[in-house]
Amino acid sequence: MAYIKYLHLESDLNERYDFDHIQVLVLNCVFLALTNNLTPKVGDILAHREIASQATIHAALKKLKNKKMISFWSANDSRAKYIELTKLGLKRFETLANIPNNGTHKH
Q1: pTM of the model
Q2: 83: domain CATH number?
Q3: Cα 50 to chain center, whole Å?
Q4: Angle between helices 21-35 and 54-66 (to 10 degrees)
Q5: In this predicted structure, which of 4-8, 51-55, 56-60, 62-66 has the lowest mean pLDDT?
Q6: What's the distance, CA 78 to chain centroid?
Q7: Does the residue 24 lie in any domain?
Q8: Where are the alpha helices (DSSP H) in 1-107?
């Protein structure tokens, strides 16, 4: 079953990158914003109280940056910090999206 493969792969990737549950939720939040053609700001992500407190989310963002999954940038005319996925961060989602369906098709 494809979903079971997905869950195993996601668990393996999370372990490989040493992600905790909060880091996964924060990374998913950034990814979802980007897929909706939004440019997430740090403040936007910090506002997600359903994930954790602002301090905990901030710590997760810092860890994700240190793991080279995300990067920050600032516009010249703004104090806001924007978040983008790095190549490594994108690779994680591409890997999850391309799970082979070996053995599930009958010919």
Answers
A1: 0.87
A2: 1.10.10.10
A3: 16
A4: 80
A5: 4-8
A6: 24
A7: yes
A8: 2-16, 21-35, 42-46, 54-66, 87-97
